[in-house]
Amino acid sequence: PFGALFLWILAQNQRRCVHVMGFAYITIPVLALIILRQEPEHGFSLLLILMVVVWCADTFAYLGGRIIGGPKLWPSISPSKTWAGAITGFAGGLLGGNILCAIGFEVQSCLLVSAVLALASIMGDLMESFFKRFYGQKDSSNFIPGHGGLLDRVDGIVVAAPVLWVLVFLGVAI
User: Fold this and answer.
1) How far apart are CA 54 and CA 120, in angstroms?
2) Within a 13 Å sphere around the CA of 2, how many CA atoms are in the beta-carbon half?
3) Residue 82, strand partner residues
4) Is residue 100 within 8 Å of 49, Cβ to Cβ?
5) Residue 28: helix, strand or coil by DSSP?
6) Residue 90 within any structural domain of the chain
7) What is the C-alpha radius of gyration for the chain, rounded to an integer number of angstroms?
8) How far is residue 84's CA from residue 66's CA, in Å, rounded to a whole number?
9) What's the Cα-to-Cα distance from 88 to each of 57, 93, 125, rounded to whole Å?
């Protein structure tokens, strides 16, 4: 959803809209994290599963891409990401989330939430890569040297946090 809105804004070529989108890109995930944490019964567990799924997806995607390699996922957006990385990232996120099923989530809900969050994490990674390519940046910052920038550490969370909030709102995640 963020990517489609961003592309529409770019097509309008209105600088003001790009500023608004940049503000929303940061504000919406932060608000989602705050709202999730304030959920009275499961707030901590929700943030824990979010972080574990996203970090496992990111780590497994990196390892799968490096070790297995293979065809590129979307070379014009992210030349180094592979299908193997996306598949192992999805599997890693699913695995990480399901290990946490013991914290009180129903198994069916945990499988669904882990799968959706793993996909959202991969989409967040691709979206951040798109932004970097669009603006001609190799890294999003030099804040964490050698890691592609600060956004590379949180790109999955930027998309997955609002997605998890929607799942909670719909009653799927709890």
Assistant:
1) 8
2) 30
3) 72
4) yes
5) helix
6) yes
7) 16
8) 9
9) 8, 8, 14
Summarize the confidence of residues 129-133 as an average pLDDT: 79
Per the structure block, which two tokens stand in for 48? 């824990």
Is residue 5's pLDDT more than 60? yes
Token reading at 71: 């065809």
Most confident segment among 2-16, 68-82, 131-145: 68-82
Q: Which domain holds residue 61?
A: 2-169
The DSSP bridge partners found for residue 80 are none
Closest CA to 98 of 110, 115, 113, 85: 110
The pLDDT tens digits of the residues spanning 40-60 come to 888 888 899 999 999 999 999
Given a cut of 90, whether residue 23 has pLDDT beyond it is no
63-90 pLDDT, tens digit each: 999 999 888 888 888 878 899 999 999 9
Q: Is residue 80 part of a domain?
A: yes
Domain-located, residue 174: no
Whether residue 33 is contained in a domain is answered as: yes
Decide the pairing of beta strands 72-74 and 78-82. antiparallel
Domain count, the chain: 1
Quick count: other Cβ atoms within 10 Å of Cβ 20? 13
Q: What are phi and psi of 173, to 5 degrees?
A: -85, -10
